[in-house]
Amino acid sequence: MTSGIEFFLTRRVRDPEDDHRGWEWYVLDNERIHQDILQILFNSSGDFREALAGHDGKCVKNTQLFDLCLKSEGDTHTCFEIKVEHGWSDDQRSRQLDYLRQFPNARGALILLSQQAAFLTRDEIARKAQGVPFAKISYKELYRALDAIKGDQALCELREAYKLALREQEQRTINGGWGDPNR
To answer: Does domain 4-169 have CATH number 3.40.91?
Structure first.
């Protein structure tokens, strides 16, 4: 039986004829949904934090330059930028890199989903990051981190619903001709 969260995360919310570009839109094509889900997962599961960021900490949202930041009690932090529809602009990248250069134990990560995951490869991100530690996180890394989650029933239900919705989004990206989102 489909759970309520699974039903919500896998819904199409706009038909192609209703979009000026002819695109279908699903709930998961909204960057804000990913921000909210990932913040919940970071703050609810140490296993998820360790698998995706490699350190413990508290996840805060909307830190002016990044969508999410996982800050440890020490000076280690990982800042996450989530991209679904819009690209990583030169201006935004420059400001984010300048910020990260201020902290010796800070690093960045682009969580790239849908078309953006296919457009930016790991090699391109490394080149554009100009020596600043900046990783690409795409579907395969998210699946690995989601598989690490152990916990109560509600958390596991969110994990499974999000994973299913991500798999559907990944397939739409591949089947839509955008390319391999995990490069």
So the answer is: yes
Terminal-to-terminal C-alpha distance of the chain: 34
Tell me which residue of 78, 50, 31 sits closest to 144, measured CA to CA: 50
Tokens for 50?
């360790």
Which residue in 87, 39, 89, 91 sits closest to 63, CA to CA? 39
Residue 166 structure tokens? 């991500």
What confidence tens digit (pLDDT) does each residue in 156-176 have? 999 999 999 999 999 998 888
Helix pair angle (153-175, 139-148), 10° resolution:
160
Tokens 């499974």 locate to 160
Q: Measured at the alpha carbon of residue 30, what is the angle toward residues 1 and 124, in degrees to the nearest 5?
A: 115
Closest by CA to 66, choosing from 30, 39, 40, 44, is 39
pLDDT score recorded for residue 25:
83
